[in-house]
Amino acid sequence: MDVLQLLLSGLANGCVYGLVALGFVLIYKATEAVNFAQGDFMMLGAFVMVGLVNPHFMGLNFWLAVPIALLIMGALGYLLDLAVLRFMFGQSQTAVVILTISLGFVIRFIAGVIWGHEPQSLHSPLALGDVRFGGVVLSLADIAVIVVTLLMTLALWQFFQRTKLGLAMQAASQNQMAAYYMGIPVKRVQGAVWALAGIVACVAGILYASKGAIDISSGFIGIKAFAAAVIGGFGSLPGALMGGIIVGVIEPFAARYLPTGYSQIAPYAILIFVLVFRPHGLFAQVRVKKV
After folding, report:
1. Would you give the distance in Å from CA 187 to the centre of its chain?
2. 83 burial type by CB count under 10 A (0-12 exposed, 13-18 middle, 19+ buried)
């Protein structure tokens, strides 16, 4: 029972990492850029929800606030691309990476100014109950994280495989100029993927805040999510989920059975192992870039 409890708890945490990792993969599949502010987007989405729901802020109904928060974060993602990232069109990926790292600092500063630096708890109905399976206990928030993550991974995978916009995003990531000359509105496509990444980050933030308190440093979960995306294969949506689950499951077992402190480095030890023996990730599909 102890092992099963650790496994299920790790699975729930891993699904949060997987959701954030999905944001990394979304942007990478569409632009071949790495958004190191994705964890901070998650943190901002959680705080937007706190501002909408908690009684000492706006005090809206939770289920009414969810679509509003998603729209806000989607709009912020699109406006970020429109106002900042489009000026990086044609620049190196290194410049975009540096920009997103700087953006993370800006988001943390703004969140601290608006919501303060003390931990906040989201008034969520998902945090009000537990479900027991024999001797194993799972919170409603944990179950919601697992179910929503699986559904979003499936939906996004279908989106990229079967929709014109998803195929256009992949074409733009292969070669922006060639896609532009073939009639694909590259800038609008990139705006759409940044909006979608903002929505995914908001979902992750709402679920993460339903599990416990958040503060402006919660965005550093993006570092573990990045490791999860690399472990799974940076261009693979199912790989992002599986990488997140691997990281999430490794942590509680390392904390339980290894000396103190080893749980903090266990995900990165796995990352190094994967990069040495399978550099493209466990579930990556290596492809030849078309030019």
Report:
1. 22
2. exposed
Nearest to 208, CA basis, from 3, 14, 6: 14
- Domain of residue 25, residue span: 2-218
Would you call 41 exposed, middle or buried from its count of C-beta atoms within 10 A (0-12, 13-18, 19+)? buried
- Of the candidates 76, 6, 83, 49, which has an alpha carbon nearest to the alpha carbon of residue 204? 49
Q: Which amino acid is at 79?
A: L
Residue with tokens 């279908």: 158
Asked whether residue 267 is assigned to any structural domain, the reply reads no
What is the rounded average pLDDT for all residues in the chain?
85
Lowest average pLDDT, out of 12-26, 67-81, 84-98, 168-182, goes to 168-182
| Tokens, residue 114 | 């608006």
- Give the pLDDT band (50/70/90) at residue 44: very high
Q: Has residue 129 been placed in a domain?
A: yes
pTM metric for this prediction? 0.88
Domain count, the chain: 1
